[in-house]
């Protein structure tokens, strides 16, 4: 089932003494439950802007975004905030843990915005989620006393504690070493698989990109499929931007590493 | 409906929980930034509280001099200057007082007693009164008691004296019934000191009160020098009408005599509040202090909001609406200043109610120290909340205007 769809989406920004700058243009993309999507691209290619649009943090200047079939343009800021809180989880490169708060307080933060029973059970849910990411013994630790990998695991627990349908990871391993990065990605994928959430990863790291099922490239604001050959489940380059559902993860060898590396060069 | 109520309740509770959490996390910074507000509220509230005590001291001082409001003063005189027939005047006054059911009334005259002290004979100013005078003039006692009914029947006249008088006698315990020899019409008269009035430090000359009937019976003051007036403590609302009626009735009852009945209490003096200028000046200073405290708070809040922009962005990314962020930042300021205001008010109460302060402002002359004025405490708290709201508004608006995507990258 489609979570979010972008149809002809563009994003331009006005500049005072220059013509408008086009960051994204004519992006068509659909993310469905269980999707595994990676987006690669050079710096300034529009990756973060795309992530912000997918995360309902920004509004497009052209085209239409639909979330659960509802046109985002028509939703109020408050409604968008609630939708974001309930359905989308963010994992940032720099973890962005709230300072001065313990691991469990950080994980409980999104639950403060839940207007249902999750708010009242926030401590138990946060404890469970921290246990799920292997930090059950460190729930009262301050982030600045934790390693980078542990901090990112706290961030993952925080992103997933409300069981979002869409997980947006912006360079989630950018601040981690190779091994820790791999562990963190495996954890995120595992939890996402358990909850049936879609996972969209923006990365410069070809190894991380290869873990996804659908591989997209952003170049000067234009999105295109990265695969030349049919992807897992028979996905061809032509329909790589279409949702493929919760397909089996592609073997890493299926992703053309050379092409990925070329993009990142 | 129940689901909606549940969501709303959860929304309200979670908003306050979040604000409390924010306050807890930032408590050190918040408390430090609120020192200025606490000091300002302390100053403002102390001024208001001190003004109330000073007002009470002034009122009591005025009441001791001119009597409690409304105090009517009646004077009788003849156009020719002949003395007024005292007995007839007394009878006319008593009759009028009974007719109007005046509960407290007294004869009042001023004379001089000749008293024998160890250092010789001294003339002592004396106020010659009836028993009710003590209540009517809020006479506060330092030692012993004021006159009571029956004192005029004593074989030795009772005297109430001031502290210098008492000290000239050697400050004897009143339980020993100290006496003083007065010069009466028929020779020395031994008077008993029954009470010592509370006396200002500025009063250094001996003074006494004597009962009119005793003075009359023992001839303590030559009659020719004793011109009685009358005082009546009446309800304020009825004072004006009673003054007119008493004037007419006394004039009618005493042919050849003219009566003048007027209010003499301080409320009838007009001219407004004598402490008003002082209050305004000090309150003005306190308000300036409060504004400076608020300015400091706004500055700190703005700086910290800038510092916390990333944090605000992160919260927004997890579903915090702009309303929640606004409320959270505003509440942080309001709750903080309310706490600071509470501390300021508490300190002000401790300061104003301290014996040192009461002695300083009251100069030992305030009989009934007023409780700490509730309005001063409320003004203190309200000011701090208002300052918190105003100081929190700007940072809250700034926080709401932050673009989430910019904030996260901040």
TrEMBL record, chain A:
Residues 224-245 are annotated as: Disordered. The keyword Transport applies. Residues 4-245 form the ABC transporter domain. Coiled coil: none annotated. Signal peptide: none annotated. InterPro entries: AAA+_ATPase, ABC_transporter-like_ATP-bd, ABC_transporter-like_CS, ABC_transpr_LolD-like, MacB-like_ATP-bd, P-loop_NTPase. PROSITE patterns: ABC_TRANSPORTER_1, ABC_TRANSPORTER_2. This is ABC transporter ATP-binding protein. The lineage of its organism: Bacteria, Bacillati, Actinomycetota, Actinomycetes, Micrococcales.
From TrEMBL, chain B:
Residues 285-398 form the ABC3 transporter permease C-terminal domain. PANTHER family: ABC TRANSPORTER PERMEASE YTRF, MEMBRANE COMPONENT OF TRANSPORTER-RELATED. Belongs to the ABC-4 integral membrane protein family. InterPro entries: ABC3_permease_C, MacB_PCD, Macrolide_Exporter_MacB. It is a multi-pass membrane protein. The chain crosses the membrane at residues 30-54, 280-305, 325-352, 372-400. Keywords: Cell membrane, Membrane, Transmembrane, Transmembrane helix. It is found in: Cell membrane. Residues 31-202 form the MacB-like periplasmic core domain. It holds the Pfam family FtsX. It comes from Agromyces salentinus. This is ABC transporter permease.
């Amino acid at each position: 089932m489609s979570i979010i769809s972008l149809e002809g989406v563009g994003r331009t920004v006005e500049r005072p003494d220059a013509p408008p700058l086009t960051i994204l243009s004519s992006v068509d993309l659909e993310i469905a439950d269980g999707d595994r999507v990676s987006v690669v691209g050079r710096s300034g290619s529009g990756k973060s802007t795309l992530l912000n649009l997918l995360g309902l943090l920004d509004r497009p200047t052209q085209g239409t975004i639909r979330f659960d079939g509802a046109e985002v343009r028509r939703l109020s800021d408050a409604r968008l905030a609630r939708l974001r809180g309930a359905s989308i989880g963010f994992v940032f490169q720099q973890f962005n843990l709230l300072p001065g708060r313990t691991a469990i307080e950080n994980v409980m933060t999104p639950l403060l915005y839940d207007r249902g029973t999750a708010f009242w059970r926030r401590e138990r849910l946060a404890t469970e989620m921290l246990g799920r990411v292997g930090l059950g013994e460190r729930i009262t630790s301050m982030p600045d006393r934790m390693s980078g990998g542990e901090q990112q695991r706290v961030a993952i627990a925080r992103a997933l504690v409300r069981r979002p349908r869409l997980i947006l990871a912006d360079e989630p391993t950018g601040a981690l070493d190779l091994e820790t990065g791999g562990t963190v990605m495996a954890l995120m994928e595992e939890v996402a698989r358990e909850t049936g959430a879609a996972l969209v990863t923006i990365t410069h790291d070809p190894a991380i990109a290869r873990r996804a099922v659908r591989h997209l490239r952003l170049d000067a604001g234009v999105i295109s499929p990265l695969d030349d050959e049919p992807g897992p489940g028979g996905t061809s380059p032509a329909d790589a931007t279409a949702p493929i559902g919760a397909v089996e993860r592609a073997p890493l060898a299926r992703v053309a590493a050379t092409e990925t590396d070329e993009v990142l060069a | 409906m129940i689901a909606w109520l549940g969501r709303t309740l959860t929304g309200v509770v979670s908003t306050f929980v979040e604000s409390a959490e924010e306050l807890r996390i930032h408590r050190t910074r918040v408390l430090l930034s609120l020192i200025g507000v606490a000091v300002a509220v302390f100053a403002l509230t102390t001024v208001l509280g001190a003004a109330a005590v000073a007002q009470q001291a002034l009122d009591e001082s005025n009441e001791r001099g001119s009597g409690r409001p409304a105090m009517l003063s009646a004077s009788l005189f003849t156009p020719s200057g002949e003395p007024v027939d005292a007995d007839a005047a007394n009878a006319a006054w008593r009759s009028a007082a009974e007719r109007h059911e005046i509960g407290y009334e007294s004869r009042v005259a001023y004379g001089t007693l000749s008293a024998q002290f160890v250092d010789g004979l001294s003339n002592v100013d004396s106020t010659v009164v009836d028993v009710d005078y003590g209540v009517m003039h809020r006479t506060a006692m330092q030692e012993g008691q004021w006159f009571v009914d029956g004192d005029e029947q004593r074989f030795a006249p009772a005297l109430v004296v001031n502290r210098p008088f008492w000290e000239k006698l050697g400050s004897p315990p009143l339980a020993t019934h100290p006496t003083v020899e007065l010069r009466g019409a028929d020779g020395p008269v031994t008077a008993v000191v029954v009470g010592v009035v509370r006396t200002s430090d500025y009063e250094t000359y001996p003074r006494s009160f004597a009962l009119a009937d005793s003075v009359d019976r023992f001839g303590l003051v030559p009659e020719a020098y004793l011109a009685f007036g009358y005082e009546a403590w009446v309800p304020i609302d009825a004072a004006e009408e009673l003054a007119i009626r008493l004037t007419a009735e006394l004039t009618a009852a005493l042919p050849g005599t003219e009566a003048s009945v007027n209010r003499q209490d301080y409320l009838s003096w007009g001219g407004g509040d004598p402490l008003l200028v002082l209050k305004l000046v000090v309150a003005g200073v306190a308000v300036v202090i409060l504004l400076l405290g608020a300015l400091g708070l706004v500055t700190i809040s703005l700086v910290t909001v800038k510092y916390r922009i990333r944090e605000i962005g992160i919260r927004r990314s997890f579903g915090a609406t702009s309303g929640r962020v606004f409320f959270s930042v505003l509440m942080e300021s309001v709750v903080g200043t309310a706490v600071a205001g509470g501390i300021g008010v508490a300190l002000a109460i401790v300061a104003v109610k301290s014996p040192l302060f009461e002695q300083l402002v009251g100069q030992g002359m305030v009989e009934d120290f007023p409780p700490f004025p509730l309005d001063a405490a409320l003004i203190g708290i309200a000011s701090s909340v208002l300052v918190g709201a105003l100081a929190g508004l700007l940072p809250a608006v700034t926080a709401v205007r932050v673009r989430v995507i910019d904030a996260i990258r901040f």
